[in-house]
Amino acid sequence: MDEQRRKTVLVADDEPAIRRLVSRMLDDDYDVIEAENGREAVDMARIHRPDVIFMDMMMPEMDGLSACCQIKADEGTSYIPVVMLTGISYDLNRKFSEDVFGANGYVTKPFTRESLLQELERLVLLAADTTGQLSTG
User: Fold this and answer.
1) What span, in angstroms and rounded, lies between the C-alpha atoms of 94 and 129?
2) Is residue 88 part of a domain?
3) CA-CA distance, 1 to 11, in Å (whole number)?
4) Which of 29, 42, 43, 102 holds its CA 20 to 30 A away from the CA of 75?
5) Coil, helix or strand for 16?
6) Is residue 134 one of the residues assigned to a domain?
7) Which pLDDT score is estimated for 1?
């Protein structure tokens, strides 16, 4: 990466295999941290302030949509882009996730490394543009 520091990605999914898969797909270019449920994702977002969050929709303790809503409602984390990572590919769910809960993107399972990296690049550049920082690349 050409940035001065590596970007951090939080992957929130109740399936350990999915978390490991996403970590392996991204860890060459990003620092990846993991949460196994929505409540843990909200806590980790507040503590670590990741650059992007990939969030499964259906998790125990707190589902991904509720976690996304809490992250977006918190002044300290509202700027963090959240991408719903889900096996549910209905357009209505995508629209609901983005329009009602504030998600910034929606990637359906199964996904490829390229689709994750493409979404990450889009959001990292978008975040840099909205914060007024110079984006390189």
Assistant:
1) 24
2) yes
3) 20
4) 29
5) helix
6) no
7) 43
- Residue 134's pLDDT is 35
Q: Write out the two tokens for 39.
A: 């409540």
Give me the domain span that covers residue 36: 8-129
Distance of CA 4 to the CA centre of its chain: 21
- Return the residue matching tokens 């449920």: 37
| Cβ atoms of residues 19 and 27 within 8 Å | no
Following DSSP, what letter does each residue of 31-74 receive, concatenated? EEEEESSHHHHHHHHHHH--SEEEEESS-SSS-HHHHHHHHHHS
Decide if 136 is inside a domain.
no
Q: Can you list the residues of the chain whose pLDDT is less than 70?
A: 1-4, 89-101, 126-137
CATH number at residue 14: 3.40.50.2300
The DSSP-derived string for 65-106 is HHHHHHHHHSTTTTTS-EEEEES---HHHHHHHHHTT--SEE
Supply φ then ψ for residue 68, to 5 degrees.
-60, -45
